[in-house]
UniProtKB/TrEMBL annotation:
Cofactor note as given: Binds 1 Mg(2+) ion per subunit.
Protein name, as recorded: Enolase-phosphatase E1
Catalytic activity: 5-methylsulfanyl-2,3-dioxopentyl phosphate + H2O = 1,2-dihydroxy-5-(methylsulfanyl)pent-1-en-3-one + phosphate
Subunit structure: Monomer.
Lineage: Bacteria, Pseudomonadati, Pseudomonadota, Gammaproteobacteria, Lysobacterales
Cofactor names: Mg(2+)
Length: 228
């Protein structure tokens, strides 16, 4: 069995509950997005992402209000748009820093990340959430500030999570052979793509999900069940 030297983990459904993202983060961004665009819409970074969103939808000449409506619809659909995720991250910053919420972590995750790091493993995140949003997520988590444990973050600017090439790029960026990296996710298509790139995989099936008799990937109910 190859030695695992690095762990790359997804967030939603893996370290943290889907309901925290859908019931806390998304409504927070939905409520504040129109005012945020109103107040910050002329800054270069926000302008850039509004333009990218409009381009993605094929409405580059559209008035700003139409782009806002588009983004609100995308939040409702949980569209994994890089532009939307970048804007959401900027909006969530206020929520974390103002103490409106802390990021949910499943109960064993914080201790397990500490243990893996103490064993010398390098820990990385790969999520559809933007890198700045990921940094906030682990800094302001229910398990305390976990950001010092993390060696790096990847988002969909590296590539889509269901494509083999994204994992090849991440392995190269980490500087490890793919076989020494364990990717953890709740989404089987992401795990298939990671395996095709040569990474080891772990499928998180959090309760009430049951582990099938013959899972397509090594399957675990939580991080404590993972044997390296
Ligand atoms: C870290 S930002 C909040 C999560 C988010 O917006 C998201 O889309 C999570 O997707 P994941 O790839 O972590 O399943
Ligand atoms: Mg996920």
């Amino acid at each position: 069995m190859t030695v695992i030297r690095a762990i790359l983990t997804d967030i939603e459904g893996t370290t943290s509950s889907i309901s925290f993202v859908k019931d806390v983060l998304f409504p927070y961004a939905h409520k504040r997005l129109p005012a945020f665009v109103e107040t910050h819409g002329d800054t270069p970074e926000v302008q850039h992402w509004l333009h990218e969103a409009a381009k993605e939808a094929g409405i580059v000449e559209a008035p700003r209000q139409e782009v806002i409506e588009l983004l609100l619809g995308w939040i409702d659909q949980d569209r994994k748009s890089t532009a939307l995720k970048a804007l959401q991250g900027m909006i969530w910053k206020d929520g974390y820093e103002g103490g409106d919420f802390r990021a949910h972590m499943y109960p064993e995750v914080g201790a397990k990340l500490h243990a893996w790091r103490a064993d010398g493993l390098h820990l990385y995140i790969y999520s559809s959430g933007s890198v700045p949003a990921q940094k906030l997520f682990f800094r302001y988590s229910e398990a305390g500030d976990l950001s010092p444990l993390l060696s790096g973050y990847f988002d969909t600017e590296t590539g889509p999570k269901r494509e083999q090439a994204s994992y090849e790029k991440i392995a190269a960026a980490i500087g490890e052979q793919p076989g020494h990296i364990l990717f953890l996710s709740d989404i089987v298509e992401e795990l298939d793509a990671a395996r095709a790139a040569g990474l080891r995989t772990g499928w998180l099936l959090r309760a009430p999900l049951a582990i099938p008799d013959m899972p397509r990937h090594p399957a675990y109910a939580d991080f404590d069940a993972i044997v390296l």
